[in-house]
C-alpha cells in the first residue's frame, strides 16, 4: 500500500479523535484523592443505581411514545396525521434541561398552574392540589419527552418500508390488528427500534443539565462535581470509566439483539405498496388525541412556558445580551461545522483511495466519540492536555500550552469535533456510497489527479449530503451543554449556558428568554432538515 498524503491525513484525523477516548481508559489507573475512597464507601452505589433507574425508565417511556406514534402515522390516516408526521420530531428542539425548567416553572408553588387556577376560580390555596414533578420522576419525564423522537423517526422509517404483503400475512393467519402488530409488524421493525433506543440510552446516560437541575446523583453529575467542586481530575476520569462500561454494555446488547433478529424482508416477492387505513369515529379520535398529546407535552408545553415567562417578565429580555449570545452561538456552530465537514471529507476520501484495513479500523474506532458523553470527552481532553503539558512541553522547556486549549475556543472546537465526528463522517460516507468507484477510475483516465477528482467531482456530488450534515451538526451544537460549560472561555456564553446558569441560581424566569431563543433556533433547523428526516420513498 502506498502511503500518500490522503492516507496520512486520514490517519492523523482518526488519531486526534481517538486521543480523548483512549485517555479515559488509561486514566482509570491513576491515583486519586481521598475523595474517591469517601465516595466509594458512600455515594458511588447511589450514582450507579440512579443512572440505571433513570435509563430503564426512560427507555420504557420513549419506546411507548416513539413506537406508538410512529405506528399510527405510518399505518393509518386520521385527522391531523399529515401534520403529526413532522410535528412529532420538533421535540428535538427542546433539550432535556429546558424541559426540566418548564416542568418546574409550571408546577412549582405559585407557578404557572397556580396562576391559571387563580384566574379561573379566584383566590385559594391551590398548591396542595397541584402535583409536583421533580426529582427522579421529573428527570424521567423531561428526558423522555425530549428524546422519544429518536425512536419515532427510526421506527417510522421501518414501518414505511414494510410491504403490504406483511400486513396480508397477518390477515391470512386470522390475526387481529393488535396481534398482527406485536407478532409481525413490531418484530419486523425491531432492529430499527433497538437502534433508536440505543441512541436514547446514550443520550440519557450523557444527560447532565436535567439531572443536575433536579439534584439527582448520577454518574454524569458525579463526574462534573469531581472536576469542578473537588478538583479531582483523576477521579472524574475513574467515574467516566464506569459510565463507559454502561455504554459499551449497551453496544453489546444492541449487537446481540440485531444478530438474534429473525424477521427480515425479502425482496424476492417485490415490494407491495401498502395503503393506509382510514380511521373513523372513536378510533380516529383516539389516534388524533394520542399524537396531539405527545406533540403538545413534548413541544408546545415547554415552548408555551418559556414564552409565558418571557412575556410576564419582559425586563429579562432587555437585560440579556441577545446579540452577543446569537453571535457566540452561531460562531461556534459555523466554525465547528466547517472544521467537521472539511476533515470528515478528507478522512472519507483518504479511506476511499487508500483501501487500507488499518485505516478503516481506526476510522471505525474514531466514530465512537458520539457514543461517549460530552462531559467525559471534555474531562478526558483536559486530562490529556495536562499530561502533555507536564510530561512533554515543560520537559522540553517550552511555555505551558494549557491556556491555549483549556478555556478557549480552540479547545471547545476540538472536543466538539471528537463528539460529533461520527455524524459528519457517517453522513459523508453514506453519500460516498452512492458514487460508484468507476467514476473515480474514469476521472483518473481523463488525467484528473486525486485532488482534482475530490474537488471537481466528489464535492459537487455530495452537496446535498453536506448541507444536511451542516444543519444536523448545528442543531447538536446549539443544544450541547456540558462541553460548552466546562471548556468555554471566561465570560463566553451561549443560549444553553446562559439558561443553565440562570436555572441553577433558581432564576427560572431569567432562564426563559435564552431557552426560548434556543428552542426557536433549533426548531428552524429541524424544519429545514425535516425533508431529509421524513423521506417517504414508498408512500
What does this 3D model show about the protein?
- There is one protein chain.
- This protein has helices at 5-27, 34-40, 44-75, 81-87, 96-107, 112-121, 135-160, 164-172, 177-188, 190-206, 209-213, 219-228, 233-260, 281-312, 315-319, 322-354, 357-366, 374-393, 402-405, 409-432, 437-445, 450-461, 463-479, 482-487, 495-504, 508-533, and strands at 76-77, 277-278.
- Helix 8 (164-172) packs across helix 9.
- The radius of gyration is 25 Å and the shape is globular.
- It has one domain (5-23, 41-533): MetI-like (MetI-like fold), CATH 1.10.3720.10.
- Residues 263-271 have low confidence and may be disordered.
- Helices cover 75% and strands 1% of the residues.
- It has a two-stranded parallel ribbon.
- The relative contact order is 0.14.
- The protein has 539 residues and is mostly helical.
Features:
539 residues, mainly alpha, MetI-like fold
Topology:
Blueprint (H helix, E strand, L loop, with lengths): L4 H23 L6 H7 L3 H32 E2 L3 H7 L8 H12 L4 H10 L13 H26 L3 H9 L4 H12 L1 H17 L2 H5 L5 H10 L4 H28 L16 E2 L2 H32 L2 H5 L2 H33 L2 H10 L7 H20 L8 H4 L3 H24 L4 H9 L4 H12 L1 H17 L2 H6 L7 H10 L3 H26 L6
Parallel strand pairs: 1-2
Helix pairs in contact: 1-13, 1-16, 1-17, 1-18, 1-20, 3-4, 3-7, 3-10, 5-7, 5-14, 5-26, 7-10, 8-9, 10-13, 12-13, 13-18, 14-26, 16-20, 16-23, 18-20, 20-23, 23-26, 25-26
